[in-house]
Amino acid sequence: MRPFLVFVLSSLLSPWVWADEPDPLNSPQWEFVHQRFLKGEPYQFDGKVKVEAPPDAEDSLNVPVSFQVEGLDSVQEIVVVADLNPLPQVLRFRPKVMRPNLGFRMKLQQGSPIHVAAKTADGLWHVGGVWVNAAGGGCTLPSVGTSSGDWTKTLGKVSANVWQRPDGSNRLRVRLMHPMDTGLASGIPTFHIENLKVLSQDDQVLAELDLFEPLSENPMLSFDVAKQTEFKLEGRDNNGNRIQAEVGR
Amino acid sequence: MRHWLWAVASLVISVELAAAGFDYPLQPQQIATDTFVLEGKTEDFSKDNGGFIVNSGYIVTQDGVVVIDTGASRRFGEQQRALIEKTTGKKVIRVYITHHHPDHFLGNQAFSELPIYALPATTQGVQREGEMFSSNMYRLIGDWMRDTSVVAPNQVAQVGKETLGGHELEVLAFKGHTQGDLAIFDHTTGVLFAGDLVFNNRAATTPHAEIIDWLASLEQLLKLPFKVLVPGHGKITQDAEPIAQTRAYLVWLQTILQQAAANGLDMNEVMATPIPADFKAVALAQSELRRSVAHLYPALETEQLKPAKQAE
């Protein structure tokens, strides 16, 4: 009796038993997303991963999404996936010395669940999400920059600012000029920023990001940083163009 | 028991038949001599309301009927025209389109052989965005849109007064809600058709808005000696209250967006701004705020960024 009870209790306490719980968003693609982008690793749906997006996307090319991970220690990596997008993976974010929060905008090809999964040091993915309805078409359109032809003048240009927040942290907002072409618009090859690092002035890596095609043109990113007010940004797109900038208040 | 079941069954059947008929609940509301409005609900587009969320009006002159806005679908335009011609015994002789948003002009098909007047910016807007609006409307209201296609206005509305069948009608050109906002003031009856420059207890929509221009247009509207005010959405009034409300809402909207941008907020944070008690009666305020953030915030937040130090 006693070993059996221990087994039952430990299964209740272990997150692994929740690994098969149904997706609260009822995504038809959840198992695919789990296998492909979380490598089939253990997960649980967790309200500590708070995801915000409007229920209806006003502009399928610029759907604002933000997430905050609260009350989880040592978040290693956060993955954002729009399950029903032709290119589901939006970004991967590894906060080193900043809060596991991020705001950005993305393209949606149709209404879709948007899942945000945060991996803690114990190897468990904590998953939150939200459904966004959309008129769609966001992934198969050429970027404005490419169709107007003037993207070359601004490619890789960075603008930014830093604000003090009421909770004592600082907010860093960064805009990177880049077409972020998905490769799904006829005759326009994939052209997007692949990675980005946020560093302190003394070259400490504060966060690393892998960015993918669904991120909106001229990405606008909002970070919750500590007390710093000066930063360096380093990145590269899939054609080898470098992003290098110093930003601050 | 059996009778009861029959009653339910026949009710279900009749409801389904009515739905299959896609009949808009059009009830002409007389607001002045010769002047009527078909008042839509203060809702968002849905498969339940078929896009009947807008006020369209008509003036029954001695020479025939002048229609202001044709609704969201071919079905609406056809039912509107049939109702007008049946109840007034007169033919529709011309149509005015107040601006290029889909709930105001997608009924044009029912009037395509008539002169359809609009400001040039409105006609350009229909030509540029009409197809996109139309496909989005199919998504939003479904079969109510069946066989609807885009018919652009075919006449340029001239600003100024014209007497038509005993009504002195003045066409006024404004902008702010869109680049071309037409209002019609009937000097004979004192009725002002304000289009979507004015909303009444329904949050203003901003997909093409320039708030500064819009506020200036509202100041001009306030100077007109109207007795009856027909807003684009919401109840008809005999005072200027809806103008004051629309102005207060737009000023509030502009203020919170500017403050949010100056404080470094991201879009979702701005979208969650609480709606003040003053606008409690304003339908759809929170969802229209979310839309307005998408429309207006990108320009404001960009103003708050500084160029980074970069090697050339």
Automatic annotation (TrEMBL), chain A:
<dbReference type="InterPro" id="IPR014756">
    <property type="entry name" value="Ig_E-set"/>
</dbReference>
<keyword id="KW-0732">Signal</keyword>
<dbReference type="InterPro" id="IPR038162">
    <property type="entry name" value="SoxY_sf"/>
</dbReference>
<feature type="domain" description="Ig-like SoxY">
    <location>
        <begin position="36"/>
        <end position="139"/>
    </location>
</feature>
<dbReference type="InterPro" id="IPR030831">
    <property type="entry name" value="Fuse-rel_SoxYZ"/>
</dbReference>
<protein>
    <submittedName>
        <fullName>Sulfur-oxidizing protein SoxY</fullName>
    </submittedName>
</protein>
<feature type="signal peptide">
    <location>
        <begin position="1"/>
        <end position="19"/>
    </location>
</feature>
<dbReference type="InterPro" id="IPR032711">
    <property type="entry name" value="SoxY"/>
</dbReference>
<feature type="domain" description="Sulphur oxidation protein SoxZ">
    <location>
        <begin position="167"/>
        <end position="246"/>
    </location>
</feature>
<dbReference type="Pfam" id="PF13501">
    <property type="entry name" value="SoxY"/>
</dbReference>
<dbReference type="InterPro" id="IPR013783">
    <property type="entry name" value="Ig-like_fold"/>
</dbReference>
<dbReference type="InterPro" id="IPR014880">
    <property type="entry name" value="SoxZ_dom"/>
</dbReference>
<dbReference type="Pfam" id="PF08770">
    <property type="entry name" value="SoxZ"/>
</dbReference>
From TrEMBL, chain B:
<dbReference type="GO" id="GO:0017001">
    <property type="term" value="P:antibiotic catabolic process"/>
</dbReference>
<dbReference type="InterPro" id="IPR001279">
    <property type="entry name" value="Metallo-B-lactamas"/>
</dbReference>
<feature type="domain" description="Metallo-beta-lactamase">
    <location>
        <begin position="53"/>
        <end position="233"/>
    </location>
</feature>
<feature type="signal peptide">
    <location>
        <begin position="1"/>
        <end position="19"/>
    </location>
</feature>
<dbReference type="InterPro" id="IPR030811">
    <property type="entry name" value="SoxH-rel_PQQ_1"/>
</dbReference>
<protein>
    <submittedName>
        <fullName>Uncharacterized sulfatase</fullName>
    </submittedName>
</protein>
<comment type="similarity">
    <text>Belongs to the metallo-beta-lactamase superfamily. Class-B beta-lactamase family.</text>
</comment>
<dbReference type="InterPro" id="IPR050855">
    <property type="entry name" value="NDM-1-like"/>
</dbReference>
<dbReference type="Pfam" id="PF00753">
    <property type="entry name" value="Lactamase_B"/>
</dbReference>
<dbReference type="InterPro" id="IPR036866">
    <property type="entry name" value="RibonucZ/Hydroxyglut_hydro"/>
</dbReference>
<keyword id="KW-0732">Signal</keyword>
